[in-house]
Amino acid sequence: MKDASALEFALLGLLKQRPQSGYDLRKTFGTTAMRQYSDSPGSIYPALRRLEAKGRIERVGPDGEAGAGQEADPRRKQLFRLTAAGEAALLAWLSSQVTREDVALRLAETMLRFAFMDGNVPRATAIRFLDEYARELSGYVETLRPQWEAMHRSSPIHTGVLAFRSGIEGMEAQLDWARRARALLAEPRG
After folding, report:
1. What's the CA gap between 160 and 125, in Å, rounded?
2. Within-domain flag for 102
3. What's the rounded Cα separation, in Å, for the pair 124 and 101?
4. Gap between the Cα atoms of 19 and 182, Å rounded
5. Which of 45, 80, 91, 110 is the most exposed place for a label (fewest CB within 10 A)?
6. Do 24 and 86 reside in the same domain of the chain?
7. What is the secondary structure of 39-102 as a DSSP string?
8. Reported pTM
């Protein structure tokens, strides 16, 4: 499920929480752990326009009424909210299978998916996500270890070898976290 950018999915996830203006969204990106996404108007507003063109968000007035913001005074905040199509796209993205490419190339986006799961998908979906995440991450680490060992044997220790080892150790830490998180989510709630 990749018919939108990571930024667009981040926007959908934030708009699922409540209607927000572009300025509100920019502020979130600039002041939270979501700083990896640009809070630049040159990023946020074009992404909002793309989502609106796809029918995934709509403008609303201050009272939450659809369409009320479209002819609004340009000096007033324009609020956006998720449409049914936007919610369906968000849920499909959240529920999609974790792939090897997700853990190898899109780790931050993959964690963003996990962060938006609560309240949007069943607990079982989050547990399945962690199982898939751990399986794919473990498999990826297993393909990297022999490469590191060959590098380590064939050359003296240098910064490239150490950087490669750092990456493996970071993934091993993520794997440990995924297993602990899965155990916590699987505990009965009371």
Report:
1. 38
2. no
3. 23
4. 31
5. 45
6. yes
7. --HHHHHHHHHHHHHTTSEEEE-TT--BTTTTTS-TTSPPEEEE-HHHHHHHHHHHHSPP-HHH
8. 0.84
Backbone angles phi and psi of 187, in degrees to 5 = -65, 140
**φ, ψ of residue 58 in degrees (nearest 5):** -140, 155
Reading the block at residue 108, the tokens are: 């931050």
Residue 15 CB: number of other CB atoms within 10 A? Answer: 25
User: Residue 66: what are its φ and ψ, rounded to 5°?
Assistant: -60, 145
- Where a domain ends, among 27, 62, 96? 96
Same domain membership, residue 92 and residue 121: no
Q: Using one digit for the tens of pLDDT, what is the confidence trace for 22-74?
A: 999 999 888 887 777 776 778 899 999 999 999 999 999 766 566 554 455 55
Gap between the Cα atoms of 45 and 49, Å rounded? 6
DSSP 8-state class, residue 147: H
Burial zone of 75 (CB within 10 Å; 0-12 exposed, 13-18 middle, 19+ buried): exposed
Q: Is 64 within 8 Å of 19 (Cβ atoms)?
A: yes
Domain of 139 in residue numbering reads as 114-186
Distance CA 65, CA 110 (A): 33
pLDDT tens, residue by residue, 99-131: 999 999 999 899 999 999 999 999 999 999 999
